[in-house]
Design a protein that fits this description.
It comes from Undibacterium arcticum. This is Helix-turn-helix domain-containing protein. The chain has two domains: 30 residues, no CATH class; 67 residues. The chain has six helices and no strands. It has 104 residues and is mainly α. Helix 4 packs across helix 6.
Amino acid sequence: MTDAAAAARFNRGSQAPRGLLRLSDTVASSPEPWSHMNPSACSEARLPEADRINLAILALAGTATSTGLAAEHDVSRKFVYQQANKAGAALAEDARSARSQSPD
C-alpha cells in the first residue's frame, strides 16, 4: 500500500493502517476541550495562601518528607519544592534587607 493510499484509507475513518493511531483511539473524549489543562482544576491552584505558607514552613523545617507533605496536602512534590524555594528566597531577601538596615 502506498503512502497516499494509506493516508486516504486513514482519512476515511476506516481502521487505522498498521502502526498508525487516530487521536480518537488514544484520548478519551471530554465535553470541555482542554479541561485537563485547566489550572483551576488542580489541587495546587485551590490551596489557600495560608496553607501554602504552612506547607513551605514545614518543608523548610524538614519535619516531614516532601513526599509526605505532598500526599498530606494533595499536591505534587514539585509544588512542595517550589513553595519551599519561594519561602527560602523570601527569608534570604528579608535577612539581606535587615543586615543592610542595621547600624554598624
